[in-house]
Protein backbone atom coordinates (compact mmCIF):
# COMPACT_ATOMS: atom_id res chain seq x y z
CA UNK A 1 0.00 0.00 0.00
CA UNK A 2 2.92 2.32 0.82
CA UNK A 3 4.29 2.00 -2.68
CA UNK A 4 0.95 3.15 -4.10
CA UNK A 5 0.35 5.96 -1.60
CA UNK A 6 3.93 7.29 -1.72
CA UNK A 7 3.77 7.49 -5.49
CA UNK A 8 0.22 8.67 -6.14
CA UNK A 9 1.80 11.54 -8.09
CA UNK A 10 2.89 8.88 -10.61
CA UNK A 11 -0.08 6.53 -10.64
CA UNK A 12 -2.74 9.21 -11.05
CA UNK A 13 -1.45 11.23 -14.03
CA UNK A 14 0.25 8.24 -15.69
CA UNK A 15 -2.89 6.12 -15.69
CA UNK A 16 -4.88 9.13 -16.89
CA UNK A 17 -2.50 9.39 -19.86
CA UNK A 18 -3.04 5.65 -20.51
CA UNK A 19 -6.80 6.17 -20.53
CA UNK A 20 -6.53 9.16 -22.88
CA UNK A 21 -4.24 7.22 -25.22
CA UNK A 22 -6.68 4.32 -25.20
CA UNK A 23 -9.85 6.36 -25.73
CA UNK A 24 -8.50 8.50 -28.58
CA UNK A 25 -6.77 5.69 -30.46
CA UNK A 26 -9.67 3.33 -29.72
CA UNK A 27 -12.25 5.61 -31.34
CA UNK A 28 -9.88 6.45 -34.20
CA UNK A 29 -9.13 2.75 -34.79
CA UNK A 30 -12.81 1.82 -34.86
CA UNK A 31 -13.51 4.52 -37.44
CA UNK A 32 -10.44 3.92 -39.59
CA UNK A 33 -10.71 0.11 -39.26
CA UNK A 34 -14.34 0.17 -40.41
CA UNK A 35 -13.34 2.42 -43.31
CA UNK A 36 -10.61 -0.08 -44.26
CA UNK A 37 -13.14 -2.92 -44.10
CA UNK A 38 -15.31 -0.88 -46.47
CA UNK A 39 -12.33 -0.64 -48.85
CA UNK A 40 -11.76 -4.39 -48.65
CA UNK A 41 -15.34 -5.25 -49.66
CA UNK A 42 -15.78 -2.44 -52.19
CA UNK A 43 -16.50 -3.27 -55.83
CA UNK A 44 -13.45 -1.23 -57.00
CA UNK A 45 -10.36 -3.50 -57.40
CA UNK A 46 -7.84 -0.73 -56.54
CA UNK A 47 -9.62 0.03 -53.27
CA UNK A 48 -9.62 -3.66 -52.40
CA UNK A 49 -5.89 -3.86 -53.22
CA UNK A 50 -5.07 -0.80 -51.09
CA UNK A 51 -7.06 -2.23 -48.17
CA UNK A 52 -5.42 -5.65 -48.48
CA UNK A 53 -1.91 -4.15 -48.75
CA UNK A 54 -2.47 -1.96 -45.71
CA UNK A 55 -3.71 -4.85 -43.60
CA UNK A 56 -0.90 -7.17 -44.70
CA UNK A 57 1.74 -4.53 -44.04
CA UNK A 58 0.55 -3.27 -40.66
CA UNK A 59 -0.59 -6.62 -39.31
CA UNK A 60 2.86 -8.08 -39.96
CA UNK A 61 4.85 -5.18 -38.51
CA UNK A 62 5.66 -5.26 -34.79
CA UNK A 63 4.01 -2.34 -33.01
CA UNK A 64 7.37 -1.19 -31.64
CA UNK A 65 8.63 -0.79 -35.20
CA UNK A 66 5.63 1.37 -36.07
CA UNK A 67 6.54 3.52 -33.06
CA UNK A 68 10.21 3.66 -34.05
CA UNK A 69 9.23 4.80 -37.51
CA UNK A 70 6.91 7.55 -36.31
CA UNK A 71 9.18 8.82 -33.57
CA UNK A 72 12.64 8.48 -35.14
CA UNK A 73 12.25 8.33 -38.92
CA UNK A 74 9.12 10.34 -39.67
CA UNK A 75 10.43 13.65 -38.19
CA UNK A 76 13.33 13.54 -40.67
CA UNK A 77 10.81 13.79 -43.52
CA UNK A 78 9.89 17.27 -42.22
CA UNK A 79 6.15 17.10 -42.99
CA UNK A 80 4.05 17.99 -39.93
CA UNK A 81 5.53 18.05 -36.44
CA UNK A 82 3.82 15.52 -34.21
CA UNK A 83 4.00 15.69 -30.44
CA UNK A 84 5.10 12.42 -28.86
CA UNK A 85 1.58 11.86 -27.58
CA UNK A 86 0.13 12.36 -31.07
CA UNK A 87 2.79 10.08 -32.53
CA UNK A 88 1.74 7.40 -30.03
CA UNK A 89 -1.94 7.84 -30.92
CA UNK A 90 -1.12 7.62 -34.64
CA UNK A 91 1.05 4.51 -34.18
CA UNK A 92 -1.56 2.73 -32.08
CA UNK A 93 -4.33 3.69 -34.50
CA UNK A 94 -2.45 2.62 -37.64
CA UNK A 95 -1.64 -0.72 -36.05
CA UNK A 96 -4.97 -1.52 -34.38
CA UNK A 97 -7.01 -0.47 -37.43
CA UNK A 98 -5.55 -3.34 -39.45
CA UNK A 99 -6.93 -5.81 -36.90
CA UNK A 100 -10.27 -4.01 -36.47
CA UNK A 101 -10.64 -4.04 -40.27
CA UNK A 102 -10.42 -7.82 -40.37
CA UNK A 103 -12.83 -8.23 -37.46
CA UNK A 104 -15.38 -5.97 -39.15
CA UNK A 105 -14.86 -7.76 -42.48
CA UNK A 106 -15.56 -11.12 -40.85
CA UNK A 107 -18.73 -9.55 -39.45
CA UNK A 108 -19.72 -8.39 -42.93
CA UNK A 109 -19.31 -11.98 -44.13
CA UNK A 110 -21.92 -13.13 -41.61
CA UNK A 111 -24.60 -10.93 -43.24
CA UNK A 112 -26.52 -13.01 -45.80
CA UNK A 113 -25.81 -11.97 -49.41
CA UNK A 114 -29.57 -11.59 -49.95
CA UNK A 115 -29.55 -8.49 -47.73
CA UNK A 116 -27.10 -6.64 -49.97
CA UNK A 117 -28.81 -7.89 -53.14
CA UNK A 118 -32.21 -6.74 -51.91
CA UNK A 119 -30.77 -3.33 -51.05
CA UNK A 120 -29.15 -3.07 -54.47
CA UNK A 121 -32.48 -4.00 -56.06
CA UNK A 122 -34.04 -1.06 -54.21
CA UNK A 123 -31.49 1.20 -55.89
CA UNK A 124 -29.29 2.02 -52.90
CA UNK A 125 -25.68 3.03 -53.55
CA UNK A 126 -22.71 1.03 -52.21
CA UNK A 127 -22.19 3.46 -49.32
CA UNK A 128 -25.85 3.29 -48.38
CA UNK A 129 -25.91 -0.52 -48.55
CA UNK A 130 -22.79 -0.76 -46.38
CA UNK A 131 -23.71 1.97 -43.91
CA UNK A 132 -27.41 1.33 -43.47
CA UNK A 133 -27.96 -2.36 -44.22
CA UNK A 134 -24.79 -4.41 -43.84
CA UNK A 135 -22.64 -2.74 -41.16
CA UNK A 136 -25.38 -2.41 -38.50
CA UNK A 137 -25.94 -6.15 -38.75
CA UNK A 138 -22.25 -6.97 -39.10
CA UNK A 139 -21.08 -5.04 -36.02
CA UNK A 140 -23.63 -6.82 -33.80
CA UNK A 141 -22.17 -10.19 -34.56
CA UNK A 142 -18.56 -9.19 -33.83
CA UNK A 143 -18.86 -7.45 -30.46
CA UNK A 144 -16.69 -9.99 -28.58
CA UNK A 145 -13.72 -9.96 -31.02
CA UNK A 146 -13.96 -6.17 -31.34
CA UNK A 147 -13.77 -5.84 -27.59
CA UNK A 148 -10.81 -8.23 -27.52
CA UNK A 149 -9.02 -5.96 -29.99
CA UNK A 150 -9.76 -2.95 -27.79
CA UNK A 151 -8.45 -4.75 -24.72
CA UNK A 152 -5.29 -5.62 -26.66
CA UNK A 153 -5.03 -1.94 -27.63
CA UNK A 154 -5.36 -0.91 -23.99
CA UNK A 155 -2.41 -3.11 -23.06
CA UNK A 156 -0.43 -2.06 -26.15
CA UNK A 157 -0.50 1.55 -24.94
CA UNK A 158 2.28 0.60 -22.50
CA UNK A 159 4.73 0.55 -25.42
CA UNK A 160 4.43 4.34 -25.60
CA UNK A 161 6.45 4.52 -22.36
CA UNK A 162 9.58 3.90 -24.40
CA UNK A 163 8.76 6.74 -26.76
CA UNK A 164 8.45 9.71 -24.44
CA UNK A 165 4.83 9.32 -23.35
CA UNK A 166 4.55 9.13 -19.56
CA UNK A 167 1.85 6.51 -19.09
CA UNK A 168 1.28 3.50 -16.85
CA UNK A 169 3.99 1.50 -18.63
CA UNK A 170 6.62 3.96 -17.40
CA UNK A 171 5.75 3.65 -13.72
CA UNK A 172 8.17 0.78 -13.14
CA UNK A 173 11.18 2.78 -14.36
CA UNK A 174 10.22 5.70 -12.14
CA UNK A 175 9.84 3.46 -9.10
CA UNK A 176 13.18 1.83 -9.79
CA UNK A 177 14.95 5.20 -9.69
CA UNK A 178 13.05 6.26 -6.59
CA UNK A 179 14.20 3.06 -4.89
CA UNK A 180 10.72 1.69 -4.23
CA UNK A 181 9.89 -1.97 -4.54
CA UNK A 182 9.16 -2.49 -8.23
CA UNK A 183 7.34 -5.79 -7.85
CA UNK A 184 4.81 -4.29 -5.49
CA UNK A 185 4.59 -1.30 -7.81
CA UNK A 186 3.89 -3.57 -10.77
CA UNK A 187 1.12 -5.33 -8.85
CA UNK A 188 -0.64 -1.98 -8.53
CA UNK A 189 -0.16 -1.33 -12.24
CA UNK A 190 -1.63 -4.77 -12.95
CA UNK A 191 -4.59 -4.02 -10.69
CA UNK A 192 -5.16 -0.75 -12.56
CA UNK A 193 -5.29 -2.61 -15.86
CA UNK A 194 -7.61 -5.28 -14.42
CA UNK A 195 -10.04 -2.56 -13.38
CA UNK A 196 -9.91 -0.93 -16.82
CA UNK A 197 -10.41 -4.27 -18.58
CA UNK A 198 -13.30 -5.10 -16.24
CA UNK A 199 -15.04 -1.92 -17.41
CA UNK A 200 -14.55 -2.95 -21.03
CA UNK A 201 -15.85 -6.46 -20.32
CA UNK A 202 -18.92 -4.95 -18.69
CA UNK A 203 -19.57 -2.82 -21.77
CA UNK A 204 -19.13 -5.91 -23.93
CA UNK A 205 -21.70 -7.91 -21.95
CA UNK A 206 -24.20 -5.06 -22.03
CA UNK A 207 -23.86 -4.58 -25.77
CA UNK A 208 -24.06 -8.33 -26.42
CA UNK A 209 -27.32 -8.57 -24.49
CA UNK A 210 -28.83 -5.52 -26.14
CA UNK A 211 -27.77 -6.41 -29.66
CA UNK A 212 -28.21 -10.16 -29.59
CA UNK A 213 -29.54 -11.37 -32.94
CA UNK A 214 -32.16 -14.11 -33.02
CA UNK A 215 -31.32 -16.53 -35.81
CA UNK B 1 -5.40 3.67 -61.91
CA UNK B 2 -1.92 2.37 -62.66
CA UNK B 3 -0.33 5.60 -61.47
CA UNK B 4 -2.25 5.33 -58.21
CA UNK B 5 -1.06 1.80 -57.60
CA UNK B 6 2.49 2.82 -58.43
CA UNK B 7 2.37 5.81 -56.11
CA UNK B 8 1.02 3.65 -53.32
CA UNK B 9 3.75 1.09 -53.96
CA UNK B 10 6.48 3.72 -53.95
CA UNK B 11 5.18 5.30 -50.78
CA UNK B 12 5.05 1.95 -49.04
CA UNK B 13 8.56 1.14 -50.28
CA UNK B 14 9.93 4.47 -49.10
CA UNK B 15 8.35 4.06 -45.69
CA UNK B 16 9.81 0.60 -45.26
CA UNK B 17 13.26 1.74 -46.35
CA UNK B 18 13.43 4.70 -44.01
CA UNK B 19 12.22 2.59 -41.14
CA UNK B 20 14.85 -0.06 -41.81
CA UNK B 21 17.62 2.49 -42.18
CA UNK B 22 16.89 3.98 -38.79
CA UNK B 23 16.28 0.81 -36.89
CA UNK B 24 19.06 0.06 -34.42
CA UNK B 25 21.47 2.56 -35.96
CA UNK B 26 22.68 4.92 -33.24
CA UNK B 27 24.26 8.29 -33.94
CA UNK B 28 27.25 7.95 -36.25
CA UNK B 29 30.24 8.93 -34.15
CA UNK B 30 33.79 8.06 -35.05
CA UNK B 31 33.63 4.47 -33.87
CA UNK B 32 35.74 5.47 -30.87
CA UNK B 33 34.80 3.33 -27.90
CA UNK B 34 36.24 5.81 -25.41
CA UNK B 35 38.76 3.33 -24.04
CA UNK B 36 42.51 3.23 -24.59
CA UNK B 37 43.11 -0.52 -24.23
CA UNK B 38 46.92 -0.19 -24.33
CA UNK B 39 47.03 2.17 -21.34
CA UNK B 40 44.94 -0.03 -19.06
CA UNK B 41 46.58 -1.47 -15.97
CA UNK B 42 46.80 -5.22 -15.40
CA UNK B 43 45.42 -6.75 -12.23
CA UNK B 44 47.18 -9.37 -10.13
CA UNK B 45 44.84 -12.25 -9.45
CA UNK B 46 44.85 -12.92 -5.71
CA UNK B 47 45.43 -16.48 -4.53
CA UNK B 48 43.65 -18.41 -1.75
CA UNK B 49 41.07 -15.71 -1.10
CA UNK B 50 38.45 -16.37 1.52
CA UNK B 51 35.67 -14.05 2.62
CA UNK B 52 34.36 -15.52 5.85
CA UNK B 53 30.61 -15.30 6.27
CA UNK B 54 29.80 -14.27 2.70
CA UNK B 55 27.12 -16.43 1.04
CA UNK B 56 27.78 -14.80 -2.34
CA UNK B 57 31.50 -15.56 -2.16
CA UNK B 58 30.81 -19.15 -1.11
CA UNK B 59 28.56 -19.50 -4.16
CA UNK B 60 31.03 -18.10 -6.70
CA UNK B 61 33.92 -20.00 -5.11
CA UNK B 62 31.96 -23.22 -5.52
CA UNK B 63 31.01 -22.44 -9.11
CA UNK B 64 34.52 -21.29 -10.00
CA UNK B 65 33.10 -18.47 -12.06
CA UNK B 66 31.58 -15.05 -11.64
CA UNK B 67 28.69 -13.19 -13.26
CA UNK B 68 28.85 -9.40 -13.21
CA UNK B 69 25.98 -7.13 -14.21
CA UNK B 70 26.99 -4.13 -16.36
CA UNK B 71 25.64 -1.63 -18.88
CA UNK B 72 26.47 -2.07 -22.57
CA UNK B 73 25.56 1.28 -24.11
CA UNK B 74 27.64 3.85 -22.26
CA UNK B 75 30.86 4.80 -24.02
CA UNK B 76 33.81 5.16 -21.66
CA UNK B 77 31.92 3.46 -18.81
CA UNK B 78 30.34 0.21 -19.97
CA UNK B 79 30.19 -0.37 -23.70
CA UNK B 80 29.92 -3.60 -25.64
CA UNK B 81 32.01 -3.57 -28.78
CA UNK B 82 29.60 -4.87 -31.43
CA UNK B 83 32.37 -6.45 -33.52
CA UNK B 84 34.31 -8.32 -30.83
CA UNK B 85 31.55 -8.67 -28.23
CA UNK B 86 33.98 -7.45 -25.54
CA UNK B 87 32.99 -5.01 -22.83
CA UNK B 88 35.08 -1.86 -22.31
CA UNK B 89 35.13 1.14 -20.04
CA UNK B 90 35.69 2.48 -16.54
CA UNK B 91 32.96 0.42 -14.85
CA UNK B 92 34.14 -2.74 -16.62
CA UNK B 93 37.72 -2.19 -15.40
CA UNK B 94 36.55 -1.62 -11.83
CA UNK B 95 34.56 -4.86 -12.10
CA UNK B 96 37.63 -6.75 -13.39
CA UNK B 97 39.85 -5.24 -10.71
CA UNK B 98 37.45 -6.39 -7.97
CA UNK B 99 37.19 -9.84 -9.57
CA UNK B 100 40.99 -10.16 -9.58
CA UNK B 101 41.05 -9.22 -5.90
CA UNK B 102 38.53 -11.98 -5.22
CA UNK B 103 40.73 -14.49 -7.05
CA UNK B 104 39.09 -14.64 -10.47
CA UNK B 105 40.96 -13.77 -13.66
CA UNK B 106 39.23 -12.32 -16.71
CA UNK B 107 38.48 -15.71 -18.27
CA UNK B 108 36.24 -16.64 -15.32
CA UNK B 109 34.04 -13.54 -15.66
CA UNK B 110 30.74 -13.45 -17.55
CA UNK B 111 29.47 -9.93 -18.16
CA UNK B 112 25.69 -9.65 -18.36
CA UNK B 113 23.84 -6.54 -19.51
CA UNK B 114 21.24 -5.48 -16.94
CA UNK B 115 18.96 -2.48 -17.50
CA UNK B 116 18.67 0.19 -14.82
CA UNK B 117 15.12 -0.85 -13.95
CA UNK B 118 16.09 -4.52 -13.52
CA UNK B 119 19.12 -4.02 -11.27
CA UNK B 120 17.58 -4.75 -7.88
CA UNK B 121 15.83 -7.84 -9.21
CA UNK B 122 19.02 -9.16 -10.85
CA UNK B 123 21.00 -8.74 -7.62
CA UNK B 124 18.31 -10.05 -5.29
CA UNK B 125 17.54 -13.09 -7.44
CA UNK B 126 21.22 -13.94 -7.75
CA UNK B 127 21.32 -13.55 -11.56
CA UNK B 128 24.44 -11.45 -11.06
CA UNK B 129 26.98 -11.74 -8.24
CA UNK B 130 27.62 -8.02 -8.21
CA UNK B 131 26.68 -5.05 -10.37
CA UNK B 132 28.91 -2.28 -11.69
CA UNK B 133 27.04 0.13 -13.96
CA UNK B 134 26.59 3.80 -13.04
CA UNK B 135 24.62 2.69 -9.99
CA UNK B 136 24.02 5.68 -7.71
CA UNK B 137 24.07 4.91 -3.98
CA UNK B 138 20.86 6.08 -2.29
CA UNK B 139 19.44 5.34 1.15
CA UNK B 140 16.23 4.00 -0.32
CA UNK B 141 18.08 1.55 -2.56
CA UNK B 142 20.04 0.39 0.47
CA UNK B 143 16.78 -1.14 1.73
CA UNK B 144 16.89 -3.59 -1.20
CA UNK B 145 20.58 -4.08 -2.02
CA UNK B 146 23.87 -3.02 -0.44
CA UNK B 147 26.62 -0.89 -1.92
CA UNK B 148 30.41 -1.01 -1.80
CA UNK B 149 32.19 2.20 -2.66
CA UNK B 150 31.57 4.76 -4.00
CA UNK B 151 34.20 4.14 -6.65
CA UNK B 152 33.35 7.30 -8.61
CA UNK B 153 31.65 10.61 -7.90
CA UNK B 154 29.52 11.80 -10.80
CA UNK B 155 27.09 14.72 -11.01
CA UNK B 156 24.16 15.64 -13.21
CA UNK B 157 25.19 17.71 -16.19
CA UNK B 158 23.99 18.72 -19.66
CA UNK B 159 25.10 17.62 -23.12
CA UNK B 160 24.39 20.17 -25.85
CA UNK B 161 25.30 20.83 -29.48
CA UNK B 162 28.75 22.35 -29.81
CA UNK B 163 27.49 25.58 -31.42
CA UNK B 164 24.79 26.12 -28.79
CA UNK B 165 25.82 28.91 -26.42
CA UNK B 166 22.34 29.54 -24.99
CA UNK B 167 22.52 26.69 -22.47
CA UNK B 168 25.11 27.29 -19.76
CA UNK B 169 23.58 25.49 -16.80
CA UNK B 170 20.38 24.11 -15.32
CA UNK B 171 18.89 27.61 -14.86
CA UNK B 172 19.04 28.28 -18.62
CA UNK B 173 16.86 25.31 -19.59
CA UNK B 174 13.50 27.12 -19.62
CA UNK B 175 11.85 26.76 -23.01
CA UNK B 176 14.38 24.16 -24.14
CA UNK B 177 13.62 20.54 -24.94
CA UNK B 178 15.45 18.27 -22.51
CA UNK B 179 15.89 14.53 -23.06
CA UNK B 180 16.86 11.65 -20.82
CA UNK B 181 16.03 8.01 -20.16
CA UNK B 182 12.44 7.16 -19.13
CA UNK B 183 11.95 7.67 -15.41
CA UNK B 184 15.64 8.27 -14.67
CA UNK B 185 16.61 10.34 -11.62
CA UNK B 186 17.97 13.24 -13.76
CA UNK B 187 14.70 13.64 -15.68
CA UNK B 188 12.68 13.33 -12.46
CA UNK B 189 14.85 16.14 -11.05
CA UNK B 190 14.21 18.31 -14.12
CA UNK B 191 10.47 17.66 -13.68
CA UNK B 192 10.38 18.21 -9.91
CA UNK B 193 12.47 21.40 -9.95
CA UNK B 194 10.62 22.63 -13.06
CA UNK B 195 13.87 23.41 -14.85
CA UNK B 196 11.84 23.34 -18.07
CA UNK B 197 8.15 23.10 -18.96
CA UNK B 198 6.50 19.67 -18.65
CA UNK B 199 5.78 19.67 -22.40
CA UNK B 200 9.48 20.01 -23.17
CA UNK B 201 10.52 16.86 -21.34
CA UNK B 202 11.41 14.01 -23.66
CA UNK B 203 12.05 10.45 -22.44
CA UNK B 204 13.42 7.49 -24.41
CA UNK B 205 14.64 4.01 -23.58
CA UNK B 206 18.31 4.74 -24.24
CA UNK B 207 20.68 7.70 -24.01
CA UNK B 208 21.88 7.02 -27.54
CA UNK B 209 18.34 7.78 -28.79
CA UNK B 210 18.43 11.12 -26.97
CA UNK B 211 21.83 11.91 -28.46
CA UNK B 212 20.46 11.11 -31.92
CA UNK B 213 17.58 13.55 -31.34
CA UNK B 214 20.09 16.14 -30.07
CA UNK B 215 22.09 15.94 -33.29
CA UNK B 216 18.95 16.26 -35.45
CA UNK B 217 17.99 19.32 -33.31
CA UNK B 218 14.71 17.86 -32.10
CA UNK B 219 15.89 18.28 -28.51
CA UNK B 220 18.25 20.93 -27.15
CA UNK B 221 19.93 19.15 -24.27
CA UNK B 222 20.49 15.64 -22.97
CA UNK B 223 20.80 15.41 -19.22
CA UNK B 224 22.22 12.74 -16.95
CA UNK B 225 25.45 12.11 -15.01
CA UNK B 226 28.49 13.90 -16.43
CA UNK B 227 30.40 10.62 -16.68
CA UNK B 228 27.88 9.23 -19.18
CA UNK B 229 27.71 12.50 -21.13
CA UNK B 230 31.51 12.81 -21.34
CA UNK B 231 31.56 9.40 -23.01
CA UNK B 232 29.17 10.58 -25.73
CA UNK B 233 31.00 13.89 -26.16
CA UNK B 234 34.30 12.01 -26.54
CA UNK B 235 32.72 9.92 -29.32
CA UNK B 236 31.57 12.93 -31.34
CA UNK B 237 33.63 15.96 -30.22
CA UNK B 238 32.91 17.90 -33.44
CA UNK B 239 29.18 18.14 -32.72
CA UNK B 240 28.71 17.76 -28.98
CA UNK B 241 29.97 19.26 -25.74
CA UNK B 242 29.28 18.86 -22.04
CA UNK B 243 28.28 22.11 -20.31
CA UNK B 244 30.41 21.19 -17.32
CA UNK B 245 28.37 22.63 -14.47
CA UNK B 246 27.21 19.70 -12.37
CA UNK B 247 24.14 20.20 -10.20
CA UNK B 248 23.89 17.01 -8.15
CA UNK B 249 26.08 14.40 -6.47
CA UNK B 250 25.85 10.87 -7.81
CA UNK B 251 28.15 8.50 -5.92
CA UNK B 252 28.51 5.33 -8.00
CA UNK B 253 28.62 2.13 -5.95
CA UNK B 254 29.02 -1.58 -6.62
CA UNK B 255 25.66 -3.27 -6.03
CA UNK B 256 25.77 -6.38 -3.82
CA UNK B 257 23.15 -8.61 -2.20
CA UNK B 258 21.71 -6.88 0.83
CA UNK B 259 22.55 -9.54 3.40
CA UNK B 260 26.24 -9.77 2.44
CA UNK B 261 28.11 -7.35 4.72
CA UNK B 262 31.27 -9.50 4.62
CA UNK B 263 31.65 -9.22 0.85
CA UNK B 264 30.84 -5.51 1.02
CA UNK B 265 33.74 -4.98 3.44
CA UNK B 266 36.06 -6.98 1.19
CA UNK B 267 35.12 -5.02 -1.94
CA UNK B 268 35.55 -1.74 -0.03
CA UNK B 269 39.08 -2.92 0.91
CA UNK B 270 39.86 -3.72 -2.74
CA UNK B 271 38.61 -0.33 -3.92
CA UNK B 272 40.62 1.45 -1.21
CA UNK B 273 43.76 -0.45 -2.23
CA UNK B 274 43.26 0.46 -5.90
CA UNK B 275 42.83 4.12 -4.98
CA UNK B 276 45.93 4.06 -2.77
CA UNK B 277 48.30 2.38 -5.23
CA UNK B 278 47.31 4.48 -8.24
CA UNK B 279 45.46 1.73 -10.14
CA UNK B 280 42.24 3.77 -9.94
CA UNK B 281 43.92 6.78 -11.57
CA UNK B 282 45.37 4.60 -14.34
CA UNK B 283 41.92 3.15 -15.07
CA UNK B 284 40.40 6.63 -15.17
CA UNK B 285 43.09 8.02 -17.45
CA UNK B 286 42.65 5.16 -19.94
CA UNK B 287 38.86 5.47 -20.07
CA UNK B 288 36.84 8.54 -18.99
CA UNK B 289 39.99 10.65 -18.70
CA UNK B 290 40.21 10.61 -22.49
CA UNK B 291 37.45 13.23 -22.56
CA UNK B 292 40.04 15.66 -21.21
CA UNK B 293 38.63 16.34 -17.76
CA UNK B 294 40.37 15.24 -14.60
CA UNK B 295 38.82 13.44 -11.63
CA UNK B 296 39.84 12.60 -8.10
CA UNK B 297 39.01 9.31 -6.40
CA UNK B 298 36.11 9.51 -3.94
CA UNK B 299 36.29 8.57 -0.26
CA UNK B 300 34.98 5.07 0.44
CA UNK B 301 31.91 5.16 2.71
CA UNK B 302 31.73 2.07 4.89
CA UNK B 303 28.49 1.27 6.66
Give me the count of strands of chain A: 0
Tell me what portion of residues of chain B adopts beta-strand conformation: 15-25%
Low-confidence runs of chain A: none
> Domains counted in the coordinates of chain A: how many?
1
Largest interface by Cβ-Cβ < 8 Å: A-B, 34 and 38 residues
Spell the H/E element sequence of chain B: HHEEEEHEHEEEEHEHEHEEHH
CATH superfamily of the largest domain in chain B: Periplasmic binding protein-like II
Mean of all residue-level pLDDT scores of chain A: 91
Q: Going across the biggest sheet of chain B, name each strand in turn.
A: 10-9-11-8-12
Envelope shape of chain A: flat
Please name the CATH topology of the largest domain in chain B: D-Maltodextrin-Binding Protein, domain 2
Which stretches of chain B are poorly predicted, pLDDT < 50 over at least 5 residues? 5-31
SS-derived structural category of chain A: mainly alpha
Question: How many strands appear in the DSSP assignment of chain B?
Answer: 13
Order of SSEs of chain A: HHHHHHHHHH
- The gross shape of chain B turns out to be globular
Mean residue pLDDT of chain B:
84
Distance between the termini of chain B: 77 Å
Provide a concise account of the structure shown.
The complex is a heterodimer of chains A (215) and B (303). With 215 residues, chain A is an all-alpha fold.
Amino acid sequence: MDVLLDNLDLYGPFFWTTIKLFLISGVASLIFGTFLAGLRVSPVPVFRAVGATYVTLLRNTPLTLVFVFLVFAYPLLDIIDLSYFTAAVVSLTLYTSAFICEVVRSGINTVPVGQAEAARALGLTFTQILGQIVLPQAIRSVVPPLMSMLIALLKNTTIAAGFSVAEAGAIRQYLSERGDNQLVGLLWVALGFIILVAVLSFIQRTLEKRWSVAR
Amino acid sequence: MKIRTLAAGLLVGALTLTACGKEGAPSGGTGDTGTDAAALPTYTVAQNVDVAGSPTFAKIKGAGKLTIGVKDDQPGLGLKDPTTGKFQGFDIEIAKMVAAGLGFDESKITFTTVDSAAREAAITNGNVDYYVGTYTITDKRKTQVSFAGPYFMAGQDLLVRKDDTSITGPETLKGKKVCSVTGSTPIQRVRDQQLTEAGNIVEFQKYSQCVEKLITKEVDAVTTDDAILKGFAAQDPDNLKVVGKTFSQEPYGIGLPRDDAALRGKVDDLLQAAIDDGTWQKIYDATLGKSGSAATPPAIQRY
